[in-house]
Amino acid sequence: MSQNADKILDHELLFREPEYQELFRSKKAEFEFNHSDVKIEEIRDWTKTKEYKDKNFARDSLVVNPAKACQPLGAVYVANGFAKTLSFVHGSQGCVAYYRSHFSRHFKEPTSCVSSSMTEDAAVFGGLNNMIDGLANTYNLYKPEMIAVSTTCMAEVIGDDLNAFIKTSKEKGSIPAEFDVPFAHTPAFVGSHITGYDNALLGVLQHFWDGKAGTVPALERVPDESINFIGGFDGFVVGNMKEIKRIFDLFGADYTILCDPSDVWNTPTDGEFRMYDGGTTKEEVIRALNAKATIVFQEYSTEKTIKYLKEKGQEVVALNAPVGVAGTDEFIMAISRLTGKPVPAVLERERGQLVDAMADSQAHLHGKKYALYGDPDQMIGYARFLLELGAEPTHVLATNGNDHWAKAVQAVFDASPFGRDCKVYPKRDLWHMRSLMFTEPVDFLIGNTYGKYLERDTGVPLIRLVFPIFDRHHYHRYPTWGYDGALRVLTMFLDEFFETLDANTIVPGKTDYSYDIIR
């Protein structure tokens, strides 16, 4: 074979060697028994037509490449946001391997999570014994101060009762009776990762505020002047949470971050392994009940939690992953109103700097058409910012978006002259997006790593601004929220625009009349 000790090839070159090419040809001819290249090209061309698009959008019993993940992923995210807390997923090891690898590939950091290791016998007889043994192992091996339990499909299909199982485990001596084990049922076959985030965060708050599953008296709220902040499921949490804390600190606000995994996904290399780092402490969770208000950055990621907070008597300021000028303005003015303090001069200056940067670059982005997909709140934030830039978010798609979300996006379109020809697509997937991009072409695509297949198929450049991002490094370390975050997003829009322009004008003597040094 072509790979040997004297000739080491990287993978992108190795499989171009003659031996591998012959192997692929033989496999295709003798084992795959597929259609001819001519027939395949004919069908491929047909899938780019309006006729096929109409058939594609008429399907109602099949999902092809949904732009979402399952509930337990969101629950694992939440567990990582609390101090010295270990996520315990009641289900199979394979499911948990997916959650750990998904986060580790995105954040380039280890993500701790354990499993009750349910197998076939547990599927028949129930997973109580797995829970008893699993909690004991988790408590004794990894020394957490809290274990946050969630479920997978298997546990939900057979109807395992987490509350009863956890209490039985304590009775059996797996963990001390007073040990904190908040839980949430997170069936993976309904909802998405944002539903799991909501359920798990609600489970933690209910555990501490409502009497720890009936084992102690419920807490009594004594209102104070503090403010809670909930960021929602955010793939840029490392950079964003740092920016959010900076803004609160500039106001001198008394605040509590509810669920903060920014440190555990940003640990240093200094010779010490940190299974737990940072996060919201149990004392902070308890204190958060007394807050006068909670600012939520992702309304659709926290619907149940918002309802619960309101029932507890807190004011809730629900935003939609604000990106850009207007979105950040709303956040800043909410803090100012709640604290009774004026907007710090440094933030006013940053706002002006962002507006200046937008004015410097608007000629390049004005009128450009974008297709974007991702979580509901994130799509509202990006759509608003694109409209502020004079760009057109032509196709806005969220597989986990509902009709209420679609109306909210339409209201954003209607408020801008650039939103006239823009459309919103709730409950649609990336195969729908492919049809849209072929029949109603756009200039750029905003999405996650999986969008690179759409980029290759349609030729539309991809801007990676949606979780997960596996094939690029360190995007999560920079903010997308706040005025500084908007400047980062603006730069990413412009970089892709200029890279595309350079690629289209690079041939000497033919297209390089616009291969400019100055843009």
Automatic annotation (TrEMBL):
Class of this enzyme: oxidoreductase
Reactions catalysed according to its record: N2 + 8 reduced [2Fe-2S]-[ferredoxin] + 16 ATP + 16 H2O = H2 + 8 oxidized [2Fe-2S]-[ferredoxin] + 2 NH4(+) + 16 ADP + 16 phosphate + 6 H(+)
Iron-sulfur in keyword set: yes
Family: Belongs to the NifD/NifK/NifE/NifN family.
UniProt domain Nitrogenase/oxidoreductase component: residue ranges: 70-494
One GO CC annotation: molybdenum-iron nitrogenase complex
Assigned keywords, A-Z: ATP-binding, Iron, Iron-sulfur, Metal-binding, Nitrogen fixation, Nucleotide-binding, Oxidoreductase
EC number: 1.18.6.1
Pfam (any one): DUF3364
Quaternary structure (record): Tetramer of two alpha and two beta chains. Forms complex with the iron protein (nitrogenase component 2).
Protein name listed in UniProt: Nitrogenase molybdenum-iron protein beta chain
Cofactor: binding details: Binds 1 [8Fe-7S] cluster per heterodimer.
Protein purpose: This molybdenum-iron protein is part of the nitrogenase complex that catalyzes the key enzymatic reactions in nitrogen fixation.
Residue ranges occupied by any Nitrogenase molybdenum-iron protein beta chain N-terminal domain in the UniProt entry: 1-56
Cofactors: [8Fe-7S] cluster
GO molecular-function term, one example from the UniProt record: nitrogenase activity
